[in-house]
Design goal:
The protein is an alpha+beta fold. Helix content is 59%, strand content 15%.
Length: 499
Amino acid sequence: MMRLAFAPSLRFKITAGVTLVMVVIVALYTYLHYDSHRSLVMRDAGATLTSTSQMIEGTLQHAMLQQDYDDLQSILDNIGRQPGFETLMLLDPNSVIRFAPLQKGVGARMDLRDPACQTCHTPGAPPDRQNIVYSTAQGERVLRNCNPIENQPACYRCHNAAARINGVLITDYSLADTDAHLAEDLRASLLLGGGAIALLILTINLLMDRLILARLRRVSGVLQRFGQGDLSQRLTLRSRDELGNLAETFNRMAATLQDKDRENVRLYDELQQKEAARTHLLQQVIQAQEEERKRIARDLHDQLGATLSGLTLSIEAAERAIPDQIHSLKERWQRAKDLATQALEETHKLILDLRPGVLDDLGLVAAIRADAEAHLQSRCQVQVVVTGARKRLPPQLELTLFRIVQEAINNVEKHAHARRVNLRLDFQKAVVQVTVEDDGQGFDLETVSHTGTETRGLGLLGMAERASLAGGSLHIESQIGRGTRVVVTMPTPPGTSEG
């Protein structure tokens, strides 16, 4: 069942609560007032009918003593024509109707099983009850008075002196007018109560709108703007009630938050400045590192490489000059030659690690392929896949990508114990994405990342820093026993050439 749209409102809840209480109070008051008034009216009606019946008895007494039955009948006829009188009957001790207006029912015996008679003639009924109320077959309520006619000495000439009662005068009076007046009073009470409830509800709504709801709307507007970030908002409710206390509490809180916000802004600006300085310093460090690597690689190539190459050639020339008969010297010379050759290879490998010339000459793909084959091909199966339109990137971007991938390859070589390594370079329209994935033993990324003394942890941090400085991102997935996946994504400037 759908709830009414206004049901959650404070106005509705307060109005409904007050209305319910007032309806209960008015209904209870109206019922008690109506019941009390009805009892009083019925008591007065019974007393009036009893008095009337006694007056009628007194009027009939003279005619009965004179045995003037025509006068008695005339009196009953005149009384029966009065408004409100339903029945007027004079019964003998055997419940036989002796006299009645217009002689209606004269000679008939009253049936004590009649509902109007059962009230007084049932076992346990009060013996002195004179007035009862019963309803006719048409639903009309009637007040009946049963007035016993006591036997007196003056009556002994016609009645047995031993009898206590000579008969009963029954008077039935219609309560239609009385019930109509009571119903009218009830309607008036209900209308008055309903009007009072309506006036009270209207007054409550006016006061609630002025003293509560209008102020709450102001509070709601201020809180909404405050929640949207305007910390300068304040409540201006100048009162000593609960809403005034709420406004004071809110204003103090808002002032505290505004001060903290200013402090946070200042700290954030300082942090931004420090972060910019750190980024600039890190860029300078990386650039200096690359320059130093380039210088060392050049010196190794020009000096140590040339020296080792000359040494190898000299050893080969000397080897040819040694007679074949001097085997021990020839073997030692061969070992010296192997050591010189190994030193030259290690020097070339070191030069490639420090500054791969293939990166400058042939580009990123060739440099990554050469580095992977140099470090991994003797240990595991290496596959390099290139997708998208291959293109040359700015030198600094290619160098950054190469260093990140180089560190990933070094980690695979040192820690992974992998059997298969896949490298994927995806050249997209606005980004280039490089993925290094192995099937090695993996590691707990969170543990390694938060362990500053771990070489691998420092390497991962360096990879992330390089990616961040170039405006890219680094994503690493690894689980122990399920390998590692490194994905680096870099934006590419527009206009990069294909190649």
